[in-house]
Amino acid sequence: MARGRGRHPRRRGAQGARSGGAHLRAGRARRPGRGARSGGSDPSPRHGRPPSSCSSWTRDGWTSTGRSAITSRSSRSPTGTPAAVTPRHLLTHTAGFPGEDLADYGRNEDAVAALVANLSGAPKVTEPGALFSYNNAGFVVLGRLVEVLRGGAWGEVTQRRLAGPLRLETVVTLPEQALMHRAAVGHVETAGTTNPAPVWSLPRALDPAGGLAMSAADLLEFARMHLDHGLARDDARLLSRAAVEAMSTPQVTPPPLSAFPRSYGLGMEVHDWDGGTVTGHSGATIGQKAYLRMVPGAGVAVALLTNGGASDALHADLVHPLLNGLAGVRAPAPATPPEAGTPIDPRRYVGDFDMGLATIRIDHDGRNVLTMTTVPRFSYVESLVTNPVATLAALDDHRFVEVGQDHGERREVVFLDPGADGRFRILHNSRAMVRIG
């Protein structure tokens, strides 16, 4: 937990960031994964993957210096056509092109540039600005802009402009850097068995989207800077007040998914909870998930890093009551399956939808439910898909929620853009997937 330094009337004292050394695992005891040391009584925090709001800070930092306008249009879009794609579209996940390129472009410093160059043939899902669709590749494009504008590789710029000024001691982007700290290994579930993840990190080209790793304490120091409107502890201004406000001010409204934020600022989630606004971000990599929640009105921040198990359920059980007690905010209830099945016209939903790395197949077996199956297109994706089949019940004619799960992590989807024949063109689960069959 972190608090601001007194610039808000409800902030009391210079408490700084605090973190515990407990290793928590939702549902069962956890033994350390390969390469991770046991916690014991050592209070040092484990090392894990933070949410991408940290990356957003480095990207937003250059927009607040006057070196580049956030609404400036790029000369060409990632689709290779004369473009209306702006940094604002990229920061709000509304650029309109697919964003799940997990290919390995090598470990050299040109990896980010190589991925961006490969986007020239990406298809268009929607017009820029038309629809929210979470887009990791869009953040890589922003990372490349940072590399060019700041004159260095992404990891070096992050150290120079984020970790250094904030005196963060555990921020790393490469596995060999993580070995110098107490690195946590991700865990994935396959056929009911939980095992260490097959790899520790995503390819280097994805560093701007999800390549940072740090301790919970350093993540909270980053949050404290936000609560103090962009100031470091020595009062050096790292980010303009206007940029901080833009990150936490609603810019776009995603489709209605109960577990998803009401809106997005520039690179940051904006949740409308009972009692106040909650900002932050969640981030998932291979077997790890991180959460940052800030309540600007109360000057409170909470960070949670997990490396396996029912992490969303743990977040709800641990972080939600903590924020309620510290800041007086209450999370909305998640969607639950209806007691009686809602009649549906299966013809409108059944088919295949393009997720890039996988095909999402919607089937119907005669009941008032749908079956959603994830079919990986590449062998390396198979290890990332832990629950490939889900049964979906209708909340209304376009929103569906998973049934049969007992660990509090039900998936939700929304069907969008019906054609003249009534069939939906887009399946949305935070990412827009276009019908291909």
UniProtKB/TrEMBL annotation:
Transmembrane segments: none annotated. Keywords: Hydrolase. The keyword Hydrolase applies. Gene3D superfamilies: DD-peptidase/beta-lactamase superfamily (3.40.710.10). It comes from the Bacteria. InterPro entries: AmpC-like (IPR050491), Beta-lactam-related (IPR001466), Beta-lactam/transpept-like (IPR012338). Residues 52-71 have a biased composition (Polar residues). Residues 14-24 have a biased composition (Low complexity). GO terms for molecular function: hydrolase activity. This is Class A beta-lactamase-related serine hydrolase. It comes from Nonomuraea diastatica. The lineage of its organism: Bacteria, Bacillati, Actinomycetota, Actinomycetes, Streptosporangiales.
